[in-house]
Amino acid sequence: MEGTQRSQITSSRKNIWLAGIVWLLFLAPFFYLTYMQVNTYTSTLSNIPSFVYSWEKAIPFLPWTIIPYWSVNIAYGISLLICTTLREQFIHGVRLIVASLIACAGFLLFPLKFSFIRPTTEGFSGWLFTQLEGFDLPYNQAPSLHIILLWIIWLRFRAHTPKSWQCFLNLWSLLIAISVLTTWQHHFIDIITGFGAGVFICYLLPISSRWRWHFTGSKRSLRIAKNYALSATVFYLLAFVLQGPFWFALWPAITLTFVTLGYLGAGASIFQKNTQGEIPLSARIILLPYRFFAWCTYRYYLKQCQTPSLVTEGILLGGRPLYELNANAVFDLTCEWPRNKFSQNKLYLAQPQIDLLPLYPNDINKAMLSMEQLNQAGTVYIHCKLGYSRSATVVVAWLVYNGTVATLEDAIKKVSQARPHVILNPETREALQNWYSHFQHIK
Can you tell me where the transmembrane regions are (predicted)? Predict the structure, then answer.
């Protein structure tokens, strides 16, 4: 058996290496051709502007930093070979393609020129600068493709680097990021736009999750989507009309756009949270404004919801835990936040559900299967943000499913008595009734 497993692993690694070589044979000429063509075209234009802050004149020129600057090219190739699945490698390769396309589009639409005159450099560093200048003209500035690629590549190395080496990885990656300034290759605006583009690309092309779409057309979801869309429009107007420091408003505008899509049908998939409560770093950054707003509302209601409610023996209902749990297992219905320390060292499962919308019958069925698994460990703590709706729905269904009560109304009554603040609106009750009718039919 062990010999068979070793053979499968070896075969899988061979396939990944072979596919990685094929990717490199395509990406290397694709990268240089697209990058150089755009750079050459921009050099033919007249009056190319520069965007530079006055404080950037104080940035020193450090010739030796050309070494970490160049090292991203080696990491580029290795990143395709350290992937552990063909799916991971494929999405990573697509990310690299999209990075070049988005960067080149930015170079063409908003051409900029680097404004400092680089000093002459001798020795090994001078040789590396000479090689760089052989194909890199002082254009192709914002967004910095170097920074976009660094973010994409760093995420892959971060996923496969042992914890003992994580510090070195992070420090070297930071040195690469700084080197684009200290080699006088880019201005600060290029770094900011490159970082934003890199995060956006990795969010749109997730590796550990998949985008899903289930448009229900319910009036409630459309109403919530409309409110978020109007809020996003306000932030877009602030950014494009006022500009200057108000460009920062693009961040919440983009966040609210994705939340709008969530309520139109993408659901919890916009948060990219997996069953172990992990959320990719790019998703955390993109949706940070929404998560901050959710945190504020949570803190506002915290006094009312921080005490867990004992519904029946072995079942605790509450909000996102910020306290020690007297439970053996945790069932997390939130999609906004990753798993926190209070659920560590306990059997844990997450079923991310978007806030303010009811769980549909299929969602409830899936939750019951998870509850069966968690219930074997002992007392289960079931929570959403406040413990009022998403998690309450699961507890109601579970009381019927495991035979604690005879009817759905008895279950709703029992949960409401245990936790008076629960909110089971008409849409939620309808979804529960649809699930209950099907459950009675197959029981």
Answer: 16-38, 58-82, 94-117, 137-155, 167-185, 191-207, 228-247, 253-271
Same domain, 425 and 326: yes
Of residues 263, 429, 275, 272, the one with CA closest to residue 366 = 275
Q: Which domain holds residue 170?
A: 13-42+56-204
Contact 424, 392 (CB under 8 A): yes
HSE-up of 275 (CA within 13 Å, CB side)? Answer: 6
* Residues facing residue 348 across a β-bridge: 330
Let me know: does 48 contact 111? Beta carbons within 8 Å: yes
- Residues 265 and 141: their CA atoms lie apart, in Å, by 37
CATH classification at residue 391: 3.90.190.10
> Same domain for 238 and 383?
no
SS3 of the chain: the string is: CHHHHHHHHHHHHHHHHHHHHHHHHHHHHHHHHHHHHHHHHHHCCCCCCCCCCHHHHHCCCCHHHHHHHHHHHHHHHHHHHCCCCHHHHHHHHHHHHHHHHHHHHHHHHCCCCCCCCCCCCCHHHHHHHHHHHCCCCCCCCCCCHHHHHHHHHHHHHHHHCCHHHHHHHHHHHHHHHHHHHHCCCCCHHHHHHHHHHHHHHHHHCCCCCCCCCCCCCCHHHHHHHHHHHHHHHHHHHHHHHHCHHHHHHHHHHHHHHHHHHHHHHHHHHHCCCCCCCCCCHHHHHHCHHHHHHHHHHHHHHHHHHCCCEEEECCEEEECCCCCCCCCCEEEECCCCCCCCHHHCCCEEEECCCCCCCCCCHHHHHHHHHHHHHHHCCCCEEEECCCCCCHHHHHHHHHHHHCCCCCCHHHHHHHHHHHCCCCCCCHHHHHHHHHHHHHHHHHC
| Residues taking part in catalysis | 384
Is the pLDDT at 441 greater than 80? The verdict is: no
Q: How many residues does the chain have?
A: 443
pLDDT digits 0-9 by tens, 295-345: 998 888 877 777 899 999 999 999 999 889 999 999 999 999 999 999 999
| Same domain membership, residue 272 and residue 191 | no
Residues 6+ apart with CB under 8 A from 200: 254, 282, 286
Question: Does the predicted model carry a pTM greater than 0.90?
Answer: yes
Residue 138: exposure state from Cβ atoms within 10 A (0-12, 13-18, ≥19): buried
